[in-house]
Amino acid sequence: MIIDKINLVNFRCHATYILKCKKKTTLIVGENGCGKTSVLEAIYEAMRGKSFRAVDKDIVRRGEDFYRIELDYTDGEKVIVTYDGQMKKFLVGDKKWARLPKKYRYPVVLFLPSDLHLVGSSPSRKRDYFDRTFSELRENYSSSLSRYNKALKQRNELLKNEFVSREGLFPWNVMLAKYGCEIRKWRELEVEAINQQITEVYRTIADNRDEVKIKYETQDVVISESEYLLQLERNFEKDKLLGHTSFGVHRDNYDFIFNGELADGSASRGEVRSIILALKFIEADMIYKRSARRPIVLLDDVFSELDETRQKCLVQNFKDNQVVITSVDYNE
Ligand SMILES: Nc1ncnc2c1ncn2[C@@H]1O[C@H](COP(=O)(O)OP(=O)(O)OP(=O)(O)O)[C@@H](O)[C@H]1O
Ligand SMILES: [Mg+2]
Questions:
Q1: Distance 116 CA to ligand 2 centre (A)
Q2: Is the pLDDT of residue 278 over 90?
């Protein structure tokens, strides 16, 4: 899919805003705070169904009571997103939905400045990052994850109640075991798929002999759903004391390994950036190979963080994708 134009009303600082996109590269230039990231946020929302950084009520322009996004593709398809402070609606053709149907969700590769700091960030930031990536790669990933998170929230709420019983937790344990095992299996598979390419792709950027790997770390070696369930049950007293669920995929972590050591601490700033670039290239490539669709690439202010070699590499790698770039600098 190719975006033709995007039209915003009351979206963050934009009262009204229209952007006509080029088939290849569209550059949005402007000073800090003028609303560049917000435009990418709107594109992402119309293509994926939700924002990458906020809930709807925070998006509505202050002092207004609704927002609207209209995204036109070059083939004539149009997606309209409206939110009136209560309800969100997606309109495609003459049909309305509360959520963007899968068939109208198109692949996007999003590259935020904060992604460049991923290697040294907290387990929860790394989990969020890979969750977003894997949701792009697998339709079922995000639905299992949201079911898991819902069950986790309910279980944690029950654990805060002093009268909670083992039996009361059972239905939630069953759900956590089912979705937790699915999520763990997919995380393992996707990390393995990334690892098959990452060193090779890294070397095309950095032009040397370093080895890169991502290590997926899950709490223990539990394999089956029934063992997972048993572990949750075994933890009853401990979890009750803690007031939350101590075991499960919500505690997983990812480590970046550079020449056999933790990249955080051993790799240089430039090397870390090359690792992230490699990760983005692999993500776009995996999406293309699996869906036969070239993702739209949204680059938010990342050029200023990269040296010339890496900037060129980025441009070259995404030469077949439609790319929307934001920047504060006219010279980039
Ligand atoms: N709901 C809202 N209503 C009005 N303004 C908002 C709302 N949410 C955010 N803003 C403001 O919108 C402005 C644009 O934010 P945005 O992040 O898109 O800017 P930007 O151009 O990407 O800035 P930077 O170059 O610093 O990254 C900011 O000044 C922010 O405070
Ligand atoms: Mg910004």
A1: 14
A2: yes
Q: Which CATH number fits domain 120-293: 1.10.10.10, 1.20.1050.90, 3.40.50.150, 3.30.300.30?
A: 1.20.1050.90
Q: Does domain 3-106 have CATH number 3.30.1490.20?
A: no
Q: Give residues with Cβ within 8 angstroms of 35, minimum separation 6.
A: 12, 13, 14, 17
For the stretch 58-109, pLDDT in tens is 999 999 999 999 999 999 999 999 999 999 999 999 999 999 998 999 999 9
Residue 330 confidence (pLDDT) above 70: no
Å from CA of 217 to ligand 2 middle: 32
Q: How far is the CA of 218 from the centre of ligand 1 (A)?
A: 37
Ligand closest to CA 38: 1
Instruction: Name which of 290, 297, 302, 298 is nearest 332 in CA terms.
Output: 302
pTM of the model: 0.90
Query: What is the phi/psi pair of residue 246, to 5°?
Result: -90, -15
Going from N- to C-terminal start, the domains of the chain cover 3-106, 120-293
User: If you write DSSP's letter for every residue of 175-230 in order, what string do you get?
Assistant: HHHHHHHHHHHHHHHHHHHHHHHHHHHHHHHH-S---EEEEEE-SS---SHHHHHH
**Ligand 1, atom 24, residue with closest C-alpha:** 32
Question: Token pair 């550059």 is at which residue?
Answer: 27
Ligand 1 binding residues, C-beta < 6 A: 12-13, 30, 32-38, 58-62, 301, 328
- Taking the centre of ligand 2 as the mean of its atom positions, its distance from the CA of residue 30, in whole angstroms, is 10
Return d(Cα 135, Cα 130) in angstroms, integer. Answer: 8
- Sign of the CA dihedral with 193 first, then 197, 199, and 202 last: negative
CA distance 206 to 201: 9
Q: Given the CA of residue 31, which atom of ligand 1 is nearest to it? A: 25
Residue 180 burial (10 A CB sphere; 0-12, 13-18, 19+): buried
